[in-house]
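User: Assemble these into one structure.

Assistant: Restating your components, then the assembled model:
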Amino acid sequence: MKDIYIADLSAFEDGKLFDGFFLVLGKQHRTTKQNKPYLNLVLGDKTGQIESRVWDPGDPRIAREFERGDLVKVRGCIQRFDDRMQLKVDQLRRAQTGEADKMDMLPATARDVGELWRELEKSVASLTNPHLKTLLEALLGDAAIARAYREAPAARQLHHAWLGGLLEHVVSLLGLAERVAAHYPMLDRDLLISGVVLHDIGKIRELEWEMGFDYTVEGVLLGHIQMGVDLVEKTITSLPGFPDRLCTLVLHMILSHHGKLEFGSPKLPMIPEALVLNFLDDLDAKMQAAAIEFERCAREGRAADELTGKVWALDQRQLLNTKAWLKESGK
Amino acid sequence: MKDIYIADLSAFEDGKLFDGFFLVLGKQHRTTKQNKPYLNLVLGDKTGQIESRVWDPGDPRIAREFERGDLVKVRGCIQRFDDRMQLKVDQLRRAQTGEADKMDMLPATARDVGELWRELEKSVASLTNPHLKTLLEALLGDAAIARAYREAPAARQLHHAWLGGLLEHVVSLLGLAERVAAHYPMLDRDLLISGVVLHDIGKIRELEWEMGFDYTVEGVLLGHIQMGVDLVEKTITSLPGFPDRLCTLVLHMILSHHGKLEFGSPKLPMIPEALVLNFLDDLDAKMQAAAIEFERCAREGRAADELTGKVWALDQRQLLNTKAWLKESGK
Amino acid sequence: MKDIYIADLSAFEDGKLFDGFFLVLGKQHRTTKQNKPYLNLVLGDKTGQIESRVWDPGDPRIAREFERGDLVKVRGCIQRFDDRMQLKVDQLRRAQTGEADKMDMLPATARDVGELWRELEKSVASLTNPHLKTLLEALLGDAAIARAYREAPAARQLHHAWLGGLLEHVVSLLGLAERVAAHYPMLDRDLLISGVVLHDIGKIRELEWEMGFDYTVEGVLLGHIQMGVDLVEKTITSLPGFPDRLCTLVLHMILSHHGKLEFGSPKLPMIPEALVLNFLDDLDAKMQAAAIEFERCAREGRAADELTGKVWALDQRQLLNTKAWLKESGK
Amino acid sequence: MKDIYIADLSAFEDGKLFDGFFLVLGKQHRTTKQNKPYLNLVLGDKTGQIESRVWDPGDPRIAREFERGDLVKVRGCIQRFDDRMQLKVDQLRRAQTGEADKMDMLPATARDVGELWRELEKSVASLTNPHLKTLLEALLGDAAIARAYREAPAARQLHHAWLGGLLEHVVSLLGLAERVAAHYPMLDRDLLISGVVLHDIGKIRELEWEMGFDYTVEGVLLGHIQMGVDLVEKTITSLPGFPDRLCTLVLHMILSHHGKLEFGSPKLPMIPEALVLNFLDDLDAKMQAAAIEFERCAREGRAADELTGKVWALDQRQLLNTKAWLKESGK
Amino acid sequence: MKDIYIADLSAFEDGKLFDGFFLVLGKQHRTTKQNKPYLNLVLGDKTGQIESRVWDPGDPRIAREFERGDLVKVRGCIQRFDDRMQLKVDQLRRAQTGEADKMDMLPATARDVGELWRELEKSVASLTNPHLKTLLEALLGDAAIARAYREAPAARQLHHAWLGGLLEHVVSLLGLAERVAAHYPMLDRDLLISGVVLHDIGKIRELEWEMGFDYTVEGVLLGHIQMGVDLVEKTITSLPGFPDRLCTLVLHMILSHHGKLEFGSPKLPMIPEALVLNFLDDLDAKMQAAAIEFERCAREGRAADELTGKVWALDQRQLLNTKAWLKESGK
Amino acid sequence: MKDIYIADLSAFEDGKLFDGFFLVLGKQHRTTKQNKPYLNLVLGDKTGQIESRVWDPGDPRIAREFERGDLVKVRGCIQRFDDRMQLKVDQLRRAQTGEADKMDMLPATARDVGELWRELEKSVASLTNPHLKTLLEALLGDAAIARAYREAPAARQLHHAWLGGLLEHVVSLLGLAERVAAHYPMLDRDLLISGVVLHDIGKIRELEWEMGFDYTVEGVLLGHIQMGVDLVEKTITSLPGFPDRLCTLVLHMILSHHGKLEFGSPKLPMIPEALVLNFLDDLDAKMQAAAIEFERCAREGRAADELTGKVWALDQRQLLNTKAWLKESGK
């Protein structure tokens, strides 16, 4: 059905008209600095997204009624500004049922979600603390939560911003936490594992991914930390005999996992498990960012002795790919 | 019954033995830098508190079993180090029923709590938004919450650290909020008033004042912001038909009232009412701190052209009492 | 006379020539990165301003002699870069007497300046401290100062950047200060009101608005705080019997009103009145910024559940319009 | 007349009574933590100062009427707390005329003030800009200003906190500025020299040294930067024909000489002369601090390879005395 | 021989004379605030240290010639100031050969140094990169370096401040690094292991532990990062065929291991191995600090629901011992 | 040979083809946001540089094999985006031997390098400390080092970014240091002078200027501070009898010359000479930045009362040219 993808557009000539189906990821009424109204759209599919402009929103060929999250058919052309590309939209209407498939419209994890989910369930099954085990089973056994947990991206943009990203992030962290728990006998391993599974669960409420990835208004006002605490607390309330102190510790793990007040945690980690959760979450995010950047450089054919671009998750630092650099010199 | 108060001790000579009843506000097992164990106590009554030492905890005249929150009878004497005073405890036992009255043991507001409570109820009664009114009535109508709200101090130390302090703080803020709401038509007055009433309600869980003023362990791990949100959210859940958006806004008011991430708010104020609540809470705290400092200086007989001591709530700034200074020069 | 306004230009096609009269708000000799000289102009009228370029300043159709502040007639055309618009100037000469009216050239307050001025005078008349009353009357009774005070914008850009903006800002603050003074008996109300009237008076020297809104060189080197202090101090010197201490306090109000050293106040507020002035000035600026942003969003037709753009005065925070959001859900 | 000096007291035994004449440098009504009133005095003479206590201010042998700045005769004894010493005062009365000499009571520069003054005058005489020369002559020719300039300390404590300290500091800086001006042809040497002479002149108003070294209340509220600007501006106003721009630059030098907003300069240095003044003032302060610290270590007999104590002016850094360390190893 | 240890002194009465042998850990000529010279000593043995004072250094019973690092015999008594204890020294002479044993004088690791060393050697033996293996073998095979590496403390105070502390710290980190390297295939495991072994090697030059634990002057001026880089670089220079790039990476690991410029690393980690080394070094330090604090609390008999004291390595945060707290509630 | 220079291009029309020889200063494989590969080149010669694009790298007229540092012949045309200019490359091949001269390709100091070198040698010759003199002679007598020292730029961009820039910067600083050393007898003048000569010597390794100015990978990972320390240390090792302490001090001067940890110095200045070196290096950089900015303004014909652009080296501050501003008003 869908025959033109965002990824194809770079090969198109400026000004040449084409038709295509896309998802409306953003729609904003704007005015130029000289007060002329226009529509600023973001259109996307699973291969990417493109900024788009409707310069004359009053044109009868532009649908009056369409919103973020709608599938639309557009006619327009590409315009280039140096290395930046824009879609100038001349005609736009909502797609009719059956004309386009929503599955084609959002990026998704390359991993097998079923397999990731089984790894998560294996971790839960390995818990020996009955209360924590029951808590996790109750949450992940809730059909709505489970579906959301499998689908949710880990972020609107930046790290793991794709369908299944949250699950992928948690499973990766579980492996690391397991190893570190084995190194420190002081740690309550079950509490740490539970913290890993639950720390970002509020993102299934903070984010919204039906219509592209974005924050919900509630998510902006409350944040995923508070939303996760709320979800877990309500579930615990429904579990008879869940110890009060254990409840406090689980909530503290979620509240403190950003590690600093200025990163939005209202409490600093004050138990060893919370300390470790914060460290590993941070380390894993940075290692993933490095890996992604190294892949991008390889894809772009950069030389082994060229530094990467500035990595956002590492304070705009540039990195060097150790193995590639050493290997090249060994030739 | 109680015939010796903390406030009297400053007149006592060093080393002279006396007997008295006090509340144990703190009890810590400590060792000197050379590893000799001793007990570090804080004893108090409604007129103040005094650091106390049991240098030989193994002495048979020192009770084995007593804890923070117990009423005790001690025999000991005063020791002075420059302007600092300490109580050296030679004998200590738990008070027997009827020997001492707990009401004598903690400082309390000088205001009439009943009257403060009526002012609070008047504000609630004035709300026109039925949902907010019902919410506040439900919370303040809960006997346990109402009792705690009337008793709780506003802090462990620093501002309003006395029984009834929370209520006193809220009532003062209500008056200010009312005036400012009248100045800005943009504001939803009922939401602002509700935010004032609820912003610190978590302190009835974060703090504990039966045994002196201290944080509960849960309070330290979760904080009054989270505890307040939890309390309000659970109450709202029990109210049929409470609008979701209004719930989000109320919770946002509580979450954001510290105004900065680094002050422990996980979210910044993002609606006008939250912005105003944060400003007024901050302003009122500073004005109270100034007023208290001016009173202290007057009590100490300082000259009008002497600056105050460093005020903690104002970043250790010193202040000048405008009216006193101008008046003096006018003589 | 003037028949083409900046606000009209957005409807013009690219490249189509037109003639118009504008005020030269900025004129800079620049070179491209490759060292070719050009003129970078800012042309404006009361409906807005537009960046303009003279790519060939040596062209005989471009006047040699014209400066910032001159009225000019230009012939040129619009060029667009995405949502940005520029005026390419082909011909330019100074307007002849009578060809254009300076009143058409700068934005001005929508309020009635005479009425604002009467509100200010009413506040002054209400003072009971004779020295402060005399001081304010002397300043506002000076014809040159009064004219400047009525005309001055409150800023070069950002808040209240229009003719009459300073007066509008002060009158708004007077209302708020009056209410807060009534809440705190500790405050010297007359000193606070005087502080409100005088805190920004240096802006009539720091800014210059004959030729568009800009800082004077003296303003850049000394700042409106110092310039205001100087103006007030010289006036006080001319008033026999003005008390020394009162003079010190008035100057301290001006010096400290930015509230922090890093915001350019050389002294922190050290009296209650200065503390309150700083808080209210800050709060009012933020509330105005919110109001303006909400208006812009309404004008642009944004949905009630869309957050505003990033608000500069609130550290780039986005806001939600409480009333609109609640109202929408109530439908 | 005065036969016991502060410097002698360290040899006195604890508890042995003695009589002596001192200047009251500080007098504060205090209460112990248990609310017993006492007097906290600082007594001093030119060899140092000592904290003193009147534990029973109601004792008839303690004068009712005496203030900071009075010469008093006290009877008391030394009390030691580890390496800290305190004077316990049993009797105190104001000295009678002729009993004690104020010249004995405050520390003063070791340099010859007349000679320092002549160096300053030589710098002024060397100026070629007639306006700046006239300005400096007018200020230094004012008898009251000149006397204050010769007497004033440069600070209440820390650097150059002794009579004549301001003059000594300025003369030292003149030599350095002269050298640096010769290195940079870009600099207006006369403006730089004038800035050196005037930058701290407000200290003759901010500080008060008749009764020990302290800030005046006006000094605390306005600061020496503002007070210096005011003094210079009023003098310039009295000089016919002084160019406006030159006036602005001179005031800018004073305003900006602390170099950073957070150090209390309301403006950053924006001309080369102001930039250099700030650098040299800072460098010279640090070099003086190092020199004083090296002298103290030598006096205390520290080994050459021992680091100095923490130097306040260098952010609590410890230093090594290069020459001493190298010399020692060369033995 | 040695029959009185520092740890015993807490049981001694104030003022009672005793004789003992100690190591001089610090000796400073000081003067009281009133300029009387005295000696400030720190005396220690393997059980602790005590601040000591010679109030009359001129007394003939006090040896003229003795320095930091000498064994001395002193006669004196204990003086207490609240919970602080001081040794007042009346007599002091250098110990004669055979009177005291230096092994009794410094704290040492509780682990078996030989065993720790074998673990280190096992890690080195496991390397597969021949150059890195040769480098580590060359360094650890140098008798002087090996002896220092086995003896050195990891710090002057704070973490691992005892003989063998450096080795203990490195071995602990090796275990953690091994686990994390197994989790991230991206990592060059040999480079990471080498970084762990070498990152703090400069401490064998920066610190000095013959005479107590202190920084050398060279250590203060250059730091262990630079000293470690220098040592490793010189060793590499002596190894023919060591690849230049590998050398650069090894040095970069050492240079960047503090992770932030403001922590004294002149370069931020820019390769994955350096990133991980910094994270693990930081995490392990914090976990050790938590463990030590929990032990101290257990030793002091604190209740399970009492928070620990403020932990320096965790920004003065207080911690809760998860396992103890949960266990207690389970009773 | 070379007949078209970068500086000439600004006069070229858009789209008009031309041929020219340039140095490849940068070559990066990039993709547009839509994933189409292109080459991003920086081409330069001694008159400047220009961003260039090869939009179709697969075109047979574009050489496959060419790298940064190669001389190339290109055919292309200019494209303008407002005041920005780009070279669109249609054909590109490596220059053949003799077609172009590398001396034409990089900017160089306007000063006579031979003369600068003689000034440097004069300073070295003036040293009286034989060890320092020998050290400097050894370094500057090394042919490879001397050549690099004469050629190296002082930075990749910003200050002194041209051939000979390092030498020019050092010679300027020598004059300033000489003057300041004469003012402070405390300073070891020879150590200060040596510090000036050596502080940036690592830049001959950190930077690379054969192929344009850039950091080497080693330079990025180690930095010029570490590289300078290494170079100096190795030279000292080869000098018999060089005193250890003097070596430590010289290295400390290099290590600490950035003055703050956050600027990349792993140690703060702890000796007076290091303190002065840091101050003068900083002051001179700022004065040079001001001078360059004033020259640019003069060249652009800006009015004397117009502030400069934002100066990077002065935290984006704008400056006023004192002399020009005063002179203009004097007209």
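Chain A touches chain E at residues 175-176, 179-180, 182-184, 186, 188, 191, 243-246, 249, 268, 270-273, 275-276, 279, 282-283, 286-287, 290-291, 294, 307, 314-315, 317-323, 325-326, 329-330 (CB under 8 Å).
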